[in-house]
Design goal:
The protein is of the alpha/beta class. The chain contains seven helices and seven strands, in the order αβαβαβαβαβαβαβ. It has one domain: Vaccinia Virus protein VP39 (Rossmann fold), CATH 3.40.50. It has a seven-stranded mixed beta sheet with strand order 3-2-1-4-5-7-6. Helix 5 links the parallel strand 4 and strand 5.
Length: 218
């Protein structure tokens, strides 16, 4: 069982804005069947952080059937949608962690991740909220310790403010990562991956072009 880490608080909603009632008892019962506990040294893992409605986790699970995807998301409505998809499509290689990604990293004392995806994290665009952003140089370096050799971090955002923030974070962690796609970060995500999440479609419909950063562990 992972230990809760209260020193690195994550912000954001755990429920949607709608007043739709959910059966929390049933939710936790279903969640327990797919709950991530600890890394097993015999298993290769992919860490999917902030999975929203789970589209990225489903995509990764189908693409890498020999690996286990850890879907880390505190948003209950999104987890419910993901659990329904897992059971409907009988997907066996996804585990959920309904909480803070720092708990997962804190409870992992070895290099166990082959790949990390962070697609459309909350940009927290106001300056006073900048400290709430997930992707910082400190966070990247913390991830580095749990990445296997030559493994990668993929980060996508449609926020110009967050792009600048991520660029600064990459520069500050340049001794740890190679920025693989530095010359082509503005290619469409569809040029790399055949996936369109809810937030990707929202960005395109709003005429915002998402940027993709691919970092490889040195």
């Amino acid at each position: 069982m992972l230990n809760k880490n209260y020193s690195n608080r994550l912000f954001g909603r755990t429920r949607g804005r709608s007043k739709k009632k959910i059966d929390l008892k049933k939710y936790h019962q279903t969640l327990s069947e797919y709950q991530f506990q600890n890394c097993d040294e015999k298993i290769n893992y992919i860490l999917d952080i902030g999975t929203g409605y789970g589209e990225t986790s489903i995509f990764l699970a189908n693409k890498f059937i020999d690996k286990v995807v850890i879907s880390c998301e505190k948003y209950i409505d999104g987890n419910i949608a993901l659990l329904k998809n897992i059971e409907k499509n009988k997907i066996k290689n996804i585990r959920l962690y309904n909480g803070n990604v720092y708990d997962v990293l804190q409870g992992t004392d070895r290099e166990c991740f082959d790949l990390v995806w962070i697609f459309f994290p909350d940009p927290w665009p106001k300056n006073r909220h900048a400290k709430r952003r997930l992707v910082t140089s400190n966070f990247l370096i913390k991830l580095y310790k749990n990445l296997k050799e030559n493994s990668e971090i993929h980060i996508a955002t449609d926020s110009v403010i967050y792009v600048r923030f991520i660029l600064d974070s990459i520069y500050k962690s340049k001794d740890y990562f190679l920025w693989v796609n530095q010359s082509e970060m503005n290619l469409l995500i569809k040029d790399y991956f055949d996936i369109e999440t809810k937030y990707y479609k929202k960005a395109i419909n709003s005429q915002r072009k998402p940027s993709l950063f691919i970092l490889r562990k040195l």
